[in-house]
Amino acid sequence: MQEDEIAIYLKDNPAFFEKNASLLADIHLPSPHGNGAISLAERQQLAQRDKINALQERYAELILNAEENELIANKVHGLNVGLHKATDFDAIKQFINRYIPENFDLNGSHLCVWSDQAEKAAYIQAAFGKVSEETKAWVLAQDKPCCGAPPEIAEKDWFTDAVASMAVIPLKGDACIGFLALASQDAHHFQADMETDFVMKIGEIVSAAISRYL
Fold it and tell me: Mean of the per-residue pLDDT values for the chain?
């Protein structure tokens, strides 16, 4: 008989090992852990134990991820509350520059906004910086946050310390109104293939807060 024929026979006759229970102890196979030979029954027990251990590890990983996500969600909520309490544009900028680095383990943030209405609102002019057309065009071309190594448009005066990784978040109202750059000295903090759900939420919250004053 061929191996596939034997396999089909055993599948079609599940009572075979009930009638020949001694075979479970008599048939020996190499141990998957390299400790000599073990019986078929022991091999099955080890396989089940390995599956249980893998499930336990996966469960622990899911619990840890859930706890980390809850912690980040609470920090994002705190950002939202603080921005709602800000009474003017400059207060928004100051809160962002203080709150985000302290609560998200970053070494800096850089808020840059452009708007035709800025010229009509002299009281918030201090919050608007000059932006090159190249930088504007690059930000406008992004449909989601850009994460990873600092992009070519990043300028030295954005941050006081050296930057190893960065997230550049387009800020959008009815149109793109600027960007928020977040910097880390850890090269692995922001990565090109990372999930950006929370980063996008930060951008949406900041955009909404800024739009009140444009």
Answer: 83
* Inter-residue contact 90 to 168 (CB < 8 Å): no
Cα–Cα distance measured from residue 118 to residue 99, given in angstroms and rounded to the nearest whole number: 25
Q: Identify the CATH class of 88-211.
A: alpha beta
- Residue 123: pLDDT above 50? no
Smallest CA-to-CA distance from 31 within 46, 12, 19 is with 46
Question: Hey, which residues does 108 pair with through a beta bridge?
Answer: 183
Q: Is the pLDDT of residue 87 over 90?
A: no
Residues of the chain within CATH 3.30.450.40 domain(s) are 88-211
Q: With 90 as the cut, is the pLDDT of residue 199 above it?
A: yes
Nearest CA to 108 among 117, 116, 99? 99
Q: What is the pLDDT of residue 31?
A: 65
Whether residue 109 contacts residue 100, with contact meaning beta carbons closer than 8 Å, is answered with: yes
